[in-house]
Specification:
By secondary structure, this protein is an alpha/beta fold. It is built from eleven helices and eleven strands. Strand 8, helix 8 and strand 9 form a beta-alpha-beta unit.
């Protein structure tokens, strides 16, 4: 399993011979890490985890959004010694909303408990999942054991349909967000990500990485999460304004809203036939 790279590098620096030449940055040099003090420095920079997390499960299904899955997975897999499973309703290949096929690690019936459950979103497959009692029942069962239950983008609709967001503050994909969360008796925060107790939710797609970084910091501290951000070189800088209802030009927003309207209506009609 891939462990966090920068921690290994710092340990290598700390445990090296005192006279060994190094190309570490001035910032790291100013820490004055020596073989004698490296345990103390590491403890200050990267305190012991405050969460007892061993197994993370990401629900995957036909029609899931690949970035909803693999963005947060990249972040959460940086937890030391954690097992991350992609859990499908049934065995076989999973096809994402963009047509990418991948093989899940295991199936729902083979998983007894999880420390973190993450529910990603998508489109047609997500709408179908909100009506699939087998999936919703499994989510409720896993939630009895989790330290954290989380959803990305329209995965919040699935989590909401399970009943677990009732009375909670939450966020989700921008499209009719307040309406959908009200349907599930949750309070829409309008934020990039939200937390209410053990429940974490994010806005659309890329916001799942923000949420995952916040969850990582909750367990491992801000500096550890910042190290992961640097490892990812995660510093979004889009070439022009957009990406949220507030920053998208009105004509673009209206076009996208109309497309979503058509897609949701067609899917609902298909599922109700």
């Amino acid at each position: 399993m891939r462990t966090i790279l920068f921690t290994g590098l710092l340990l290598a620096i700390a445990c090296g011979a005192p006279n060994q030449e190094s190309n570490v940055s001035q910032t790291v040099q100013e820490l004055k890490i020596t073989p004698e003090n490296h345990d103390q420095v590491m403890a200050e920079m990267f305190p012991a985890p405050t969460c007892d997390i061993h197994r993370i499960g990401i629900l995957v299904y036909d029609g899931v959004n690949s970035l909803d899955v693999f963005g947060p997975r990249y972040v959460l897999a940086q937890m030391m010694g954690v097992q991350v499973d992609l859990i499908a309703p049934d065995s076989g290949l999973v096809k994402t909303v963009m047509g990418i096929d991948f093989l899940a690690t295991t199936t729902m019936e083979e998983v007894d408990s999880l420390d973190i459950l993450l529910i990603p979103g998508g489109f047609q497959g997500t709408i179908a999942a909100t009506k699939d009692e087998r999936i919703l029942s499994w989510i409720r069962e896993m939630d009895q054991y989790t330290s954290f239950t989380a959803a990305v983008c329209t995965g919040g609709h699935i989590l909401g349909a399970s009943g677990l967001l009732k009375g909670k503050q939450a966020t989700t994909n921008w499209y009719r967000a307040e309406e959908f969360l009200h349907k599930y008796e949750a309070e829409f925060t309008g934020t990039r990500w939200a937390r209410d107790g053990k429940y974490w939710t994010s806005a659309g797609v890329t916001a799942g990485m923000d949420m995952a970084l916040a969850l990582l910091a909750e367990c491992y501290g801000e500096k550890y999460a910042q190290g992961v951000m640097l490892d990812m070189e995660y510093a979004p800088d889009p070439p022009f304004p957009g990406g949220s209802p507030a920053t998208t030009p009105p004509d673009v927003y209206q076009m996208m809203e109309a497309m979503y309207d058509m897609g949701f209506e067609a899917t609902e009609n298909m599922l109700n036939e």
